[in-house]
Specification:
The complex is a heterodimer of chains A (about 500) and B (about 250). In chain A, helix 6 packs antiparallel against helix 7 and helix 6 runs parallel beside helix 12. The relative contact order of chain A is 0.10. Chain A is built from 22 helices and two strands. Helices cover about 75% and strands about 0% of the residues of chain A. Chain A has a two-stranded antiparallel sheet. By secondary structure, chain A is mostly helical. Helices cover about 70% and strands about 0% of the residues of chain B. Classes of the chains: A mainly alpha (about 500), B mainly alpha (about 250).
Chain lengths: ~500, ~250
């Protein structure tokens, strides 16, 4: 008998815990189990870092790669798995400690959150394209149900919309996979990459288009992201934090992983993706300027950051990629912080409209302070980690003598400053007394997860060298097509 | 209502663009499929699976692929169904209020239905169990058999208004089957002989191929899949019937 750690744990343990849900209901430990599972996986992922940095871990399931399914844990996959488990731990900790609404502490929410994270881990880890589709389905179905979790009119409308849009996207992806299998007879991503060049050029274009539309919808890229704000507006903020922090990041990873692996020369695809990223960023930031509802504003701001990450990842130089991966981490942390703050504000004030939140700093000084911190981190001001990641991205572009993205990123940051400061000004404006519905004081336990994130934002901003080696290696792993093909196929 | 009209106008443009794009993609898709798609290579993954089938000693090659070679996908699909059942249970619990009552559960079902179900129920149950247990020998398996068993219970539910499946018990059954599937997968990881998640750690001599007890863990895992699928589909039926009766009870 042997007992060794494998990447399978990141998927099998959450599945097992989800299937055992009746047991946790009986013992009344749903939320503690959810939190400790995510935390344990986070610790496990971190403890694996030294091993994975020496060589990627390849876990075969039943039969060896080109035939069977395998999980591929390299530095970039580990980065995402760590990030997802951390986000899961923070959100479940917040729901557990922070007295969230009962429907978020119930059995369905437990199962859906657990499997959303497990599915995202699977999407990042798997080396088989059909297995990838299965995980996309797991993530999709849990996300649709989570959107409707509150079961009131806006939530159900959001859930239904998400279900339809998401299923259409999944069908596009499935068509692309069917065509790939028809053309090559392979399902392993590495084997597909070897055979992809032999597919007729027109067919390659069709497969690429189908993939781009399917994953573009899921990863919220313009012009496929018209559905996003309605869903972010309708679901609970705790859940939206997971959408913006985990779901989108998993799909972005898949989009770029497939682009860099399948295409031997990704120049055309890169140009398309850079254009899409740039348009997404500018359009979303401009629309965010006019939003009157905090959740819609955050949704558009999230889209803008996704555009920035896409732009930097698609450029595919080592520097911009490392910067983009760092920005993925920062954006997840910041949006977790902002959406969880929105959840706390919604509990104190009946609405999240700009006008109703006037003078919020009087009743919720900590929340207002954290909002300012998060806003500064999004803008990329020096002591915070957003500064470092944006700096790396800009340095990468200027090293390659490409200046238009730099201009666009700086313009986008200016627009961002415009709307974030508008909200901050409202928070610190004199109070309009009528809107407060309750003031049970600010429980410090509510803020524990948020203060942790704020601390991390500062620590990573002051000491980016903690992550620098890891991120550089992750960028190399994401871009290193030949290394991955050789590792899998020998 | 006034607020909704500009929203719809906004969506009409998107819809038209989307339809045009889909139409164009469909044309492209069809042209390309007819030109290139039909000359598929011969030594794809599927053909290799078929030629290696004997090593698992499962007479049904499809089952080998579903439960062993691509068992990880099957675990994923079982999870998708589990999520769907959870979602349906969540949405229907307590009734949505606005759902129209399609039938009144308190009225007497018609005589043909009652007698027919009395005849069909044991047969369907037996057929379902047969299909699950013979999944590694003949066409069918856990998914198909599980749905047949659930359908048998569904017929009982509509034929007899007093017959109800207990949600809590279904939950335990389904929880047992699902966690056994994952635990069997982990056992495969633990044993040295397989050292792989979902590895076939029980003896599966080729000599036994075609017998009921053969192919190692494959029939056991398919049995768990069958139980889980049956319990989940049964729970979905029960949820839908309950919400109907709940909303019709409100009307009376």
């Amino acid at each position: 008998m042997t007992f060794h750690f494998t990447p399978v744990w990141f998927i099998a343990i959450p599945l097992l815990l989800a299937f055992l849900a009746p047991l946790w209901v009986r013992w009344r430990v749903l939320m503690p189990v959810l939190f400790s599972a995510q935390f344990a996986l986070f610790a496990l992922a971190l403890s694996w870092l030294p091993t994975v940095r020496i060589a990627p871990v390849l876990e075969t399931i039943v039969i060896a790669p080109p035939l069977g399914i395998h999980l591929h844990l390299d530095t970039v996959a580990l980065l995402f798995v760590t990030l997802f488990s951390f986000a899961g731990a923070v959100v479940s900790g917040f729901i557990w400690l922070g007295n969230s609404a009962p429907h978020l502490r119930d059995r369905p929410a437990f199962i859906l959150i657990l499997l959303l994270i497990a599915g995202s881990n699977g999407m990042v880890l798997t080396g088989d394209i059909f297995n990838l589709y299965v995980f996309i389905e797991i993530v999709g179905v849990s996300a649709y149900a989570l959107a409707a979790l509150r079961r009131d009119k806006t939530a159900l409308e959001g859930g239904l919309k998400y279900l339809i849009v998401g299923s259409v996207a999944a069908i596009f992806i499935l068509f692309a996979i069917v065509l790939l299998y028809l053309q090559t007879g392979q399902l392993n991503i590495a084997a597909l990459a070897r055979a992809f060049a032999d597919i007729p050029a027109q067919m390659q274009l069709l497969i690429g288009l189908l993939m781009l539309i399917g994953l573009g919808i899921k990863a919220e890229l313009f012009p496929f992201n018209f559905w996003v704000p309605d869903i972010y507006r309708g679901s609970d903020s705790e859940i939206t934090a997971l959408y913006s922090g985990v779901l989108v990041k998993a799909f972005l990873f898949v989009l770029f992983h497939l682009t860099f692996i399948l295409l031997a020369d990704p120049t055309v695809a890169r140009n398309w993706l850079m254009a899409l990223g740039a348009i997404t960023m500018i359009v979303a930031e401009l629309v965010a300027l006019r939003q009157q509802d905090l959740r819609r504003m955050l949704a558009y701001s999230s889209l803008g950051q996704v555009g920035l990450i896409t732009l930097a990842l698609a450029f595919a130089s080592e520097m911009t990629t490392a910067g983009a991966l760092f920005h993925v981490i920062n954006h997840t942390l910041i949006k977790l912080l902002l959406f969880l703050l929105a959840a706390l504000m919604l509990r104190q004030f009946a609405s999240l409209k700009l006008a109703d939140l006037q003078g919020l700093s009087r009743t919720m000084p900590i929340a207002a302070g954290l909002f300012v911190l998060a806003a500064l981190a999004v803008l990329g001001l020096p002591p915070l980690s957003g500064f470092v990641s944006k700096l790396w991205i800009l340095k990468g572009f200027s090293a390659a003598q490409t200046f238009w993205p730099i201009a666009l990123i700086l313009i986008a940051a200016l627009i961002e400053a415009g709307y974030y400061f508008r909200w901050i000004r409202t928070f610190y404006a004199p109070t309009s007394t009528s809107t407060r519905i309750q003031s049970d004081g600010e429980r410090i336990l509510n803020y524990a997860p948020l203060l942790l994130i704020a601390g991390l934002l500062i620590v990573l901003g002051v000491m980016p060298f903690l992550l620098e080696d890891w991120l550089t290696q992750a960028a190399q792993a994401l871009l290193g097509r030949e290394a991955l093909l050789n590792a899998v196929l020998g | 209502m006034n607020r909704r009209i500009p929203l719809r106008k906004r969506f009409r443009v998107h819809t038209l663009l989307l339809i045009a794009l889909c139409g164009w993609l469909l044309m492209l898709h069809l042209t390309l499929l007819l030109n290139h798609g039909l000359n598929a290579p011969l030594n794809g993954v599927g053909d290799i699976y078929l030629s290696r089938n004997a090593e698992t000693a499962s007479a049904n090659a499809v089952t080998t692929v579903v439960v062993s070679y691509r068992g990880f996908d099957t675990l994923g699909e079982v999870t998708v169904l589990f999520l769907a059942a959870t979602g349906v249970g969540m949405l229907f619990a307590g009734g949505l209020g606005a759902t129209p009552a399609f039938r009144d559960r308190n009225s007497q079902p018609n005589e043909v239905m009652v007698t027919g179900t009395r005849l069909l129920f044991p047969t369907l149950l037996l057929l379902g169990i047969y299909i699950v247990l013979h999944g590694h020998l003949s066409p069918g398996g856990g998914f198909q058999g599980g749905v047949i068993v659930a359908t048998a219970f569904f017929l009982r539910m509509i034929a007899d208004s007093n017959f109800n499946l207990d949600h809590a018990q279904l939950g335990w059954v389904e929880s047992f089957a699902g966690s056994s599937f994952v635990l069997f997968g982990m056992l495969g990881l633990v044993f040295v002989t397989t050292a792989s998640f979902l590895g076939n750690f029980l003896p599966h001599p080729i000599a036994a191929m075609g017998q009921l007890v053969s192919a190692g863990v494959i029939p056991l895992i398919y049995l768990f899949v069958g139980i889980k699928v049956g319990a989940e589909v049964g729970a979905i039926f029960q949820d839908m019937l309950e919400s109907n009766s709940a909303s019709s009870a409100e009307e009376h």
